[in-house]
Design a protein that fits this description.
Elements: E1 6-13, H1 18-29, H2 40-59, E2 65-73, E3 76-83, H3 98-109, E4 113-118, E5 125-132, E6 140-143, E7 148-151
Antiparallel strand pairs: 1-2, 2-3, 3-5, 4-5, 6-7
Helix pairs in contact: 1-2, 2-3
Length: about 150
């Protein structure tokens, strides 16, 4: 029987504390998703979240309330950052800025990806970053030769 999806949502006003609050909200829910605090995966998820929130501050500054959602299901952890700016970011190799490129690379290091889509329940968009989770009993180990974590 598959494990039911877990969903965590944090909403807060956009402002100077947004990045810190998003990082804290994500960090709090990672242990429930079986992502050990201080692990390389936890650090990657928190860093990706920070970058996505910084992009909202830069490109969707009229967003009154920022929403960060974590969903854990089917061996993946997905971070979604929603704002009220309807313009989707250019996720092509040539169109991405350094922050989104880093987020895409972090996701790829965990067999994940970066995507953006129009919001379903409001005007705006959601930027999603997916991370593959280790299989039950798997252990993440950083491999300097490969430059990424591997499940062993």
């Amino acid at each position: 029987m598959p494990t039911p999806a877990q969903r965590y949502v944090a909403s807060f006003a956009l402002g100077p504390e947004a990045v810190r609050r998003a990082r804290e909200a994500v960090t709090e829910c990672l242990p429930a998703a079986d992502v050990p605090p201080g692990s390389a995966l936890a650090d990657a998820v928190v860093l990706a979240t920070s970058e996505l929130v910084v992009n909202v501050l830069r490109h969707a500054s009229r967003t009154p309330v920022l929403q960060v959602e974590i969903t854990v299901a089917a061996g993946q952890l997905v971070v979604g950052v929603a704002d009220t700016e309807p313009t989707l970011p250019d996720l092509s190799g040539a169109g991405m800025g350094a922050g989104l490129r880093m987020v895409a690379e972090l996701a790829a290091a965990y067999d994940g990806d970066l995507n953006a889509e129009p919001a379903v329940d409001h005007d705006g968009k959601v930027v999603l970053v997916r991370f593959g989770l280790p299989s039950p009993g798997g252990v993440h180990q950083w491999s300097k030769e490969q430059g990424r974590e591997t499940v062993r």
